[in-house]
Amino acid sequence: MWRGCALRFSTLALALAAAPVLPAGRAAQLPQGGGAVHLVCDPALEWSVWWQHNRHRLLARRRAPSTLSEADVAERILPALQRVLLAADERSADLAIAAMFALAEAGRDLPDLRLVDALRPRLAARPQEVGEAAVLALAVGGRSGARQPEACELLMAIARDDEVGRAAVGAPAVRERTRAFATYGLGLVAAGTADIDLRQQVFATLRALLEDDALESREIRVGAIHGLGLLRFGDDATERARLVEVLGVLRRYYLRPLGADHEIIQAHCPAAIARLLGRGDPLAAGYRALLALDLRGDGQPPRAGNLIARSAALALGRLCRPIVDADYSQLLFERLRAANDEVTRCYSALALGEIGGAPNRANLLAALSEVEGPTKCWCALALGVLSSEPFRAAPGDGERPVPDAAIGKALAAELEVAHAPALVGVLALASGLGRHVDAAPRLRQLLVAHSIQPELAGHLCLALALMNDRDAIDDMRGVMAQSRRAPILYESAALALSRLGDDRLTDRLLDDFTGAGGALARVAVTTTVLGDHGDRRAVAPLQEFLLRGGRNQLERAFAAAALGRLAARDPLPWNGAIAAGVNLSAAVATLTDTANGVLDYR
User: Fold this and answer.
1) pLDDT in tens, 68-97
2) How many CA atoms lie within 13 A of 402 on its CB side?
3) What secondary structure letter does DSSP report for 74?
4) What's the per-residue H, E or C state across 422-477?
5) pTM of the entire predicted model
């Protein structure tokens, strides 16, 4: 759980660490009410798992008014991180990993050393997770524009396991996991480059891996699929032809009759196709029809399980348009009501929310009042996603959209009778996403009443922050002060206060960080929020803590990670593009295992 946690220490991992271990096949019952909702053992049914991987784009993070200057980055952050990285050895693997990712997120060459040269020696480092992290850090740095051709050449050699790649990692063969991380990384770099030839080389490498019948690794194949899905193309004839070629590779692999054991790999093709096309591309029509067949269960070849249908539902949510593609929305609604597989029902509900439009809105409102169990939670989440779209799309200085009154009323009615924490939490977040401010007084009451339930109280804090409810600031400060032993709630309350622009937050976080006294979980979430908050006042204390030594390596690693987030060019996590639309029920270890996958890095 704790290895390499400087970057992989997520709220989900905290939740799993704190949760009781349940016997296989058993579920812990929670209080009933407002629909029978229970804690299920299948993570694919937990809406909160999806939320953790997708919340950043929905929360629309805001930075504090006092942000960093380039001088802060160049003169303070980069030199400190470089010094730590150069001094790190096998006994300080976590610190090395944190420093590499921090430098990569900053996306800049160092004052006297190129980023790619700072990371290259770590490819051969031990233990293994340091080398794996170096591969991903190369990609993250390349995504930001730092030495893309050189980063790509290294990543391609490592992914191919050729002579250059083996020399880079200092081994007679490149390990499977390292190769898999290189395939994800190639997609990340290619997504950020305008170099057509470089993208073509990445495509050729990933295609060869996916189509190599002698390759037995599901990890590498899944990485190659996601890498292909991250490629970006322009509108001219040459670029369109290359898009068609990439889509053809994914389609052919998706339709190969490979048997049940390969469906966990093929289930990633729909997400990759949806990323490449989006809703408006004329090429999307054929793929909508193809995916609809698998969602109905009529596709060829026949599928042995439910993984493909689940992926098809999610991909249709990202490919369909509200009115023009009404037939596919109706299919999703039918699957929501009648699919034998509960995960397919849940994913179909989410897809309707992603598509939006008046008919889907009406169908989701009807389903919310009719369905029970986890599907009810996902219907609420879908309504939140649907009603949040106008607010996410609106320009910051434009006319404010008007909240959807019918959705707000339906969510409020469900909140009045809901008792199960999972349902209350998602109804609160859906209300926040739709900016249904009339629900704020009720949410404040619930926050006070449930302040000892970390996950639920955290969702309530974020919901109130989405509503810009400044009347909740004092309550959130109180919750944060009382939750030093509940890191999940501490992080959510702090993130909510950050979004509300609390002028006391930086000082509170710094006090808690320096006074944590070995409470590693609190150090982790404190530095996470300091990095995301974006206040330059945090630079000097974090830099001093990082460089002075003392306390343990993990605490210094968290300080390094926070400095990286402060200096990051992109306000959103680098792995968000991979998380979007992914079928987590088909996850392989290098994608996510809640600790060591691509999606588990912070």
Assistant:
1) 788 899 999 999 999 999 888 878 899 999
2) 3
3) I
4) HHHHHHHHHHHHCCCHHHHHHHHHHHHHCCCCHHHHHHHHHHHHHCCCHHHHHHHH
5) 0.90
